[in-house]
Amino acid sequence: MSGTVTQMTETLLAQLKSETFVLLSTVDAETGGPTSSAISWVYALNASTLRIAIDHRSRLVENIKSNPLVTITVFGEGTVHAINGRAAIALDPLPNIPFKLCCFDISIEAVRNALFYGAQLSSAPQYIKTYDQRASEKLDGQVFSAMQKA
């Protein structure tokens, strides 16, 4: 594919260096069909690599191990970005976390605008955490710290 963008823009990179949520699309290991899940443990290592952490209880871990092709969908910069890549285990399990997480690095193969023609997002989706705020902040801090060191 000529003209394929294989790196994130500076704005997208900055967004993915701070807490945000994305949709992770994988191929289901059992059915072979597509599946999507919202995740928030995502971190941009650089313009061409994303790192994600996933709880081992999630089907996503087995999906990625069975088929490493993934898509990360990001809402930002007034649009929807589809980041296609290939995931590989960076560290399993991720140390110093109170439960078992698998850390994957995603080598970016393409970044494209996935919003339909003639549209612009007026605002990015936002979320709130519905469980203990202090526990959430502590766990997120542990996970992001471990991800950055992996």
From TrEMBL:
Pfam families with a match to the protein in the record: PNPOx_N
Source organism, top-level taxon: Bacteria
Residues annotated as domain Pyridoxamine 5'-phosphate oxidase N-terminal: 8-90
InterPro entries: Pyridox_Oxase_N, Split_barrel_FMN-bd
Protein name in the entry: Pyridoxamine 5'-phosphate oxidase N-terminal domain-containing protein
UniProt lineage: Bacteria, Bacillati, Bacillota, Bacilli, Bacillales
